[in-house]
Amino acid sequence: MRALVLLAALVAAAAGTETFVGHQVLRIVPTNDEELQMVQELQELEDLQLDFWLAPRSPGHPVDVRVPFPSLQPLKAHLEANGISYSIMIEDVQTLVDDEQMEMLRSHRRLPFSTATFDYTSYHSLDEIYAFMDLLVAENPNLVSKLEIGQSTENRPIYVLKFSKGGTNRPAIWIDTGIHSREWVTQASGVWFAKKIVLDHENDEGLASILDKMDIFLEIVTNPDGFAFTQAQNRLWRKTRSKQSGSRCVGVDPNRNWDAGFGGSGASKNPCSETYHGPYANSEPEVKAIVDFVKNHGNIKAFISIHSYSQLLLYPYGYTRTPVPHQKELHEISEKAVAALSSLYGTKYKYGSIITTIYQASGGTIDWTYNEGIKYSFTFELRDTGRYGFLLPAKFIVPTAEETWLALKVIMEHARDHPY
Amino acid sequence: DIGDVGRKYHLELVLEDVLDKDGTVNCTAEVLYHLGNKNTAPDVHFTIEGELKNTDEADNVFYNRIQSLEKELVAENIPDNHGNVSPEMEPIHLLAWAASGYVIWQNSTENTKFQLAQIKHVKQVKRSDEHLEFDYMILLHEMVSQEIIPWQMRVLWHPQHGVQVTQDSRQPKH
């Protein structure tokens, strides 16, 4: 009893704090009645401000108690002096509280209830986007389905939405966004495109007639590991998150990892570089998943990979100056698509082949898809031209998506009207 | 191409005020990239047709606001992850743009294209004279390599004396 009074006295100066900084949760397992009684008596000492999460019951049953910082040392000393063993379950309660707060704030934007109430004017987390996909499918089961085409390095599922009015293996259009994770306006636009297709698939003549003949595949988060990393750790992360042997650096540029001029000029062999091509073509599961899908499908007629920023519409090649055989046609389509895009808000785009318009880049997506026989292969670089760059304010998501959609329709309609 | 000297570009451009899209001004410039020594900044000569907008009022408002702060200004992540810049931080953002222009010029070659990506951190430095001084840690995005390069710079500013970068240094990546 005296020991307890002494203990209480030691803690008498405990200042009440609002937070849980330094608080620990201890687990005590009384092994006999004597120890049990000692632990039960602790409950009487108000000065210690002990908070029992699991109250003393009987010998052998764990007792969990949150201990405020000022009481820690005296309590531990007391337990040790009496030979009562304990373990530290939670080192710092405040850390857990903070983590949870952040989690709540993130999901305080909460998993959406319907695609009608989804906020297209803000950026969303991976979970929110995946939830959106499921909602879209549930709301439109006759038009939309979700396919898992593979798994990322960190075992995240890679999903593609399929928009189809029927048929079997119809000629198809592929659109992907978010292959470079920091290009946030692209994933956000992908979400908007998905909803737009659903909204317009019956009443918009152009889109309705496209879907009468063709399917649309839309991969919104092409690099989910990178995307998660941009939210949790580094907003400006570009690459995948695969570990590279022999290097402390992580990740491969998924737009240098395709089997077209792989490893040539226009990519880096340094794992620490933002344009590292990877150990070999298709080493990245995110890339391999698409390669496998495209080959297995066998009937994709247009392939559009979306990036930001720079406001450009590009066609192959990036790895060589040799023009593609269909250069003239692709250039004409680009001119039309850019005019359509501009017509909405006056946004100015340049267009041309990758190598002449932006820079030499080897192992790029649309160089591979073009060489696979997908004639209408294009890459977009969306808004802006550098004022905000990757950090494009959310208020520009919808205008960007709206104008880009007009350009996409030009490409899709051309593919519809020029079967091959 | 100029013999053993380098390569000169003659440019005709239109300058657009980011704060006022209708405010455009024609400009001609000559840029000479030196052969060989890549550590020298390109030579730039330019002429602006007409006048740039007068910004005295906004400059003075900003200047007085900073001078009247009780503690030295400190801020980070401008814009934030979602592209937001608070109104109070907008001048700090614009100042970084101007100053980074100098750093970019000093470090440009024919194979680089830099943009200011973000202000990671900015701290006001107390001064005994009338200038404002800020220590910035910025991130530059280099388009060709796609690298994000941290760069530290000391910036001096005064409404009548304009912007000066007194010291700058490229930082290691991690």
UniProtKB/TrEMBL annotation, chain A:
Mind telling me which Gene3D superfamilies this protein's record contains? Answer: Metallocarboxypeptidase-like (3.30.70.340), Zn peptidases (3.40.630.10)
**What are its GO cellular component terms?**
extracellular space
Which EC number(s) does the record attach to this protein? Answer: 3.4.17.1
Active-site residues (renumbered) = E381 (proton donor/acceptor)
Record-given protein name: Carboxypeptidase A1
Reaction catalysed?
Release of a C-terminal amino acid, but little or no action with -Asp, -Glu, -Arg, -Lys or -Pro
Upper classification of the source organism reads: Eukaryota, Metazoa, Chordata, Craniata, Vertebrata
Q: Which organism is it from?
A: Nyctibius grandis (Great potoo)
Enzyme kind, highest EC tier: hydrolase
Q: Required co-factor?
A: Zn(2+)
SMART domains per record: Zn_pept (SM00631)
- GO BP term, pick one: proteolysis
What's in the keyword line of the UniProt record?
Answer: Carboxypeptidase, Disulfide bond, Hydrolase, Metal-binding, Metalloprotease, Protease, Secreted, Signal, Zinc, Zymogen
Q: Name all Peptidase M14 domain ranges.
A: 122-415
The record's similarity note reads:
Belongs to the peptidase M14 family.
Extract the Pfam families matched here.
Answer: Peptidase_M14, Propep_M14
Signal peptide residues on this chain, from the entry's feature table: 1-16
Molecular functions (GO terms): metallocarboxypeptidase activity; zinc ion binding
Chief localization: secreted
From TrEMBL, chain B:
Identification of the protein by name: LXN protein
Q: Which family does it belong to?
A: Belongs to the protease inhibitor I47 (latexin) family.
Gene3D superfamilies, sorted = 3.10.450.10
Taxonomy of origin reads:
Eukaryota, Metazoa, Chordata, Craniata, Vertebrata
Give Gene Ontology CC terms. Answer: extracellular space
Q: Which PANTHER family match?
A: LATEXIN
Q: Which UniProt keywords apply?
A: Protease inhibitor, Repeat
Q: Give start and end of each Cystatin LXN-type domain.
A: 1-54, 74-174
Molecular function per GO: metalloendopeptidase inhibitor activity
What InterPro entries would the database entry show?
Answer: CYSTATIN_LXN, Cystatin_sf, Latexin
